[in-house]
Each structure stands twice: as C-alpha cells, then as structure tokens.
Specification:
Blueprint lengths: L1 E6 L8 H16 L4 E6 L10 H4 L11 H19 L2 E7 L7 H10 L6 E4 L2 E4 L5 E8 L7 H6 L3 H10 L4 E8 L5 H19 L6 H7 L1
Parallel strand pairs: 1-2, 1-3, 3-6, 6-7
Antiparallel strand pairs: 4-5
Helix pairs in contact: 1-7
C-alpha cells in the first residue's frame, strides 16, 4: 500500500496540522503493516503558481513547447503521477484566511488534469481517481464548525471535499482541531478530540474495506 503524506503549513515545528498529519500516518502504519510512505512538504517544495506555461501542454499542444513549458509540465507530471500512485493520501491542511494555504492550492492546480484525474463525458464531469482514501488534518485557530456563521466563513474543508470529489475520491475523512489559538485549555481540548478522531478515522470504512485489504 502506498501512502502519500502531504504537509502545507508554513510554521514548521509549531504547526498543529503537521503534528496531526504525522500522528495520522503513524497510526495508519501501525494499523496497516507494510505501508510505504512518501512525504511531500509543500512549504519546502511547492510548485509554482499555475501559469500559461504550465497550462499549454494540457490544451493538446505537444509540438514547439518552450523550455519553460517543458519544465512546468514536468513538475505537474511528477505531482499527478505521485498522487495517482497513492492508495492513501494524508493532507495537513491548516485554515489560512478562511481557506487553505496557497502552496496546497498550487498542488491541487497541478493535479487537476483532464484525462488524468477527471474527464468530461456526455453525462458531465467524471472523476478518474476513484478508490483512494484521503484523510485531512484540518486545523483552525478559531471555531467554525459549531455555528452557521462560522460554517459560512470556512472555505477549507468544504473546498477540499468538493475538489477531491470532483477527482472521484469519495472516501474523504477529516481529523479536526479547531480553537487552537484560543488559549492553552482550548488547544488541549482540541488536540484530545483530534487524537480520538484519529483512532476512529484510521479504521477502514465499509465502502473501502475490500479494496484496502486487497492492496495491504
């Protein structure tokens, strides 16, 4: 089984999402012996923002590519191939300004490729990355999940759920720690709740039980 571990927080060792994503990976490895892990640190190795140079090969252009277009296409190809090869993806995704880090958005822009992660059919768009499990370590300085106003402000978990679903990923699990910037007690409570959620989310969901047992 191949597990892709992605971190996107810019705060290094101070990052709560990095702490949680590492815990998720260790718990998964303990529950699924033989798992092979690749780590992608988007704070250290982020792809450049999406540009026309990165876009050109996706329009069908294969001849006369510039050096920049070839270089940008190689970056996108490396990232999408890595994503498609993974059975499980663990993503550390902190809430930055009501959304996700720009580094994580840049990664998504690179793997959103027609013919690779989705395609358009007569019945509309269809995801091509089915059968994967994605576990997201979602961290927030404030509390957004307990009120309608808070839920309207966050475009972090909601965005990731939509875009991964567009790629065909239906098994998306969240381990959430929120209120981590609201004092020591609030942070401690959030981390305790997140640790409990890790234990619950690591267990294979019914829809993926057979697939996981086959690739383990």
């Amino acid at each position: 089984m191949q597990l892709l571990h992605i971190d996107s927080a810019i705060t290094g060792e101070q990052s709560v999402s990095r702490q949680l994503s590492a815990q998720i990976v260790e718990a998964w490895k303990a529950s699924h012996p033989g798992t092979h892990v690749q780590h992608l640190d988007l704070a250290q190795d982020a792809p450049g923002h999406f540009t026309m140079d990165a876009m050109a090969p996706r329009t069908g252009q294969t001849e006369g590519l510039s050096d920049a277009q070839v270089r940008e296409n190689a970056v996108s190809e490396r990232l999408v191939a890595q994503f498609l090869a993974a059975d499980v993806i663990v993503i550390g995704a902190p809430l930055y300004n009501f959304s996700i880090p720009s580094q994580l958005k840049a990664w998504i822009d690179r793997i959103a490729q027609p013919g690779r992660t989705f395609r358009y059919t007569a019945n509309g768009p269809e995801g091509m990355a089915q059968g994967k499990t994605v576990i997201i370590a979602s961290t927030r300085g404030g509390v957004y999940s307990t009120s309608e106003a808070g839920r309207a402000l966050e475009h972090q978990e909601s965005y990731l759920q939509v875009v991964l679903g567009f790629f065909g990923v239906t098994d998306v699990r969240f381990v959430r720690a929120e209120g981590v910037a609201m004092g020591a007690d609030a942070k401690a409570q959030a981390m305790t709740a997140a640790s409990k959620a890790i234990a619950e989310q690591i267990q294979p969901h019914a829809a993926n039980q057979d697939r996981i047992s086959q690739v383990a």
